[in-house]
Amino acid sequence: MLAVNYSTIRNNLKNYCDLVTENCETVIVTRKDEKNVVMISLDKYNNMLENLFIMSDKVNYERLLESKEQFDKHQGITKTTEELEALANE
Fold first, then answer.
1. What element of type H or E holds 65?
2. What is the pLDDT of residue 80?
3. Membrane spanning segments where (predicted)?
């Protein structure tokens, strides 16, 4: 995470945009009176929104945690492509 003042960003906007999008860097644009702004890539922003959505539904989030726990304990079930297609057609 970088903190850069507004004037520096203004004079080097393309470079900082490239840094954010190509290197997954987060840039804090510092401004007077602590009215700072955060620059992140659209991909990172969309990922944050998706995570907030998933975590906002308690039932869905708990199910996700259970699934992760099962995966970590190697308790998953293996299905072939044909088995998955058959389940989808039921």
1. helix 58-72
2. 93
3. none
